[in-house]
Amino acid sequence: LDNLSEGREFIDLNGQSKHVLGYLQEFLFTPERARSPVSVFSGGERARLLLAKLFSKPANILVLDEPTNDLDVETLELLEEQLAEFAGTVIVISHDREFLDNVITETVFLDGSGKVREFVGGYTDWRRQGGCFPSEATGNRPDKQDKSSKTSVDTGKVESQKVADGTKAGTQSEKSKPAKLSYKLKLELEQLPGQIEALEQEVAGLQERISQADFYSGPPDEVSATLEALTEKENRLEQVIERWMELEEQANQ
């Protein structure tokens, strides 16, 4: 008891005064157990006491490195509940994928080449949005490396052949005039800015909804559907922008 309250009966939590025994009950300590010395606590009880001390301190950011190591099931569930209710920002480094799915709202991925990418949601959401590890993207098996080398050589031959063909074409390629936009393509080009604006508004609306504190506490089906909708809209927006740039370039030739 004194280990947490330093001899006080009440502690301040988010601007409110709370009795220390009532606070410890939130961490699964009965009043009798809370009055016991720390030396008789089990490993799980000591872990819960550390969590109680951590969340009793005023803070707007927490940095947790592998926080689930050596935690029993009760303490792990308690940690997830406390993090879900925490009003500030939490930065977590963990190999516990289920834990990440339960508490994380945004994933930051370092691909090993100096690039950093951000994804909405936890580990499973990162996977759903196309996330993969460098070893999965390149492949480490010898047979894959051999095929990759062979493909690289073949591609080089094809590219060289294209250069040679272009040289043979010579003046004929230079004389050819760029094709003008047809009426249908002109109409498409005029409509694309409106489509881009509409998609940007839809993406912004979904992102705002996902950023709400209680979003991940909603029904799992609705959470998954919203995340999938965001991915779909973002991909569609990227495609429309690329199409607009393509037609705009062709129109200005």
UniProtKB/TrEMBL annotation:
<dbReference type="InterPro" id="IPR037118">
    <property type="entry name" value="Val-tRNA_synth_C_sf"/>
</dbReference>
<protein>
    <submittedName>
        <fullName>ABC transporter ATP-binding protein</fullName>
    </submittedName>
</protein>
<dbReference type="GO" id="GO:0003677">
    <property type="term" value="F:DNA binding"/>
</dbReference>
<feature type="domain" description="ABC transporter Uup C-terminal">
    <location>
        <begin position="180"/>
        <end position="249"/>
    </location>
</feature>
<keyword id="KW-0067">ATP-binding</keyword>
<keyword id="KW-0175">Coiled coil</keyword>
<feature type="coiled-coil region">
    <location>
        <begin position="189"/>
        <end position="250"/>
    </location>
</feature>
<dbReference type="InterPro" id="IPR051309">
    <property type="entry name" value="ABCF_ATPase"/>
</dbReference>
<dbReference type="InterPro" id="IPR027417">
    <property type="entry name" value="P-loop_NTPase"/>
</dbReference>
<dbReference type="Pfam" id="PF00005">
    <property type="entry name" value="ABC_tran"/>
</dbReference>
<keyword id="KW-0547">Nucleotide-binding</keyword>
<dbReference type="InterPro" id="IPR003439">
    <property type="entry name" value="ABC_transporter-like_ATP-bd"/>
</dbReference>
<dbReference type="Pfam" id="PF16326">
    <property type="entry name" value="ABC_tran_CTD"/>
</dbReference>
<feature type="domain" description="ABC transporter">
    <location>
        <begin position="16"/>
        <end position="69"/>
    </location>
</feature>
<dbReference type="InterPro" id="IPR032524">
    <property type="entry name" value="ABC_tran_C"/>
</dbReference>
<dbReference type="GO" id="GO:0005524">
    <property type="term" value="F:ATP binding"/>
</dbReference>
<feature type="region of interest" description="Disordered">
    <location>
        <begin position="131"/>
        <end position="177"/>
    </location>
</feature>
<dbReference type="GO" id="GO:0016887">
    <property type="term" value="F:ATP hydrolysis activity"/>
</dbReference>
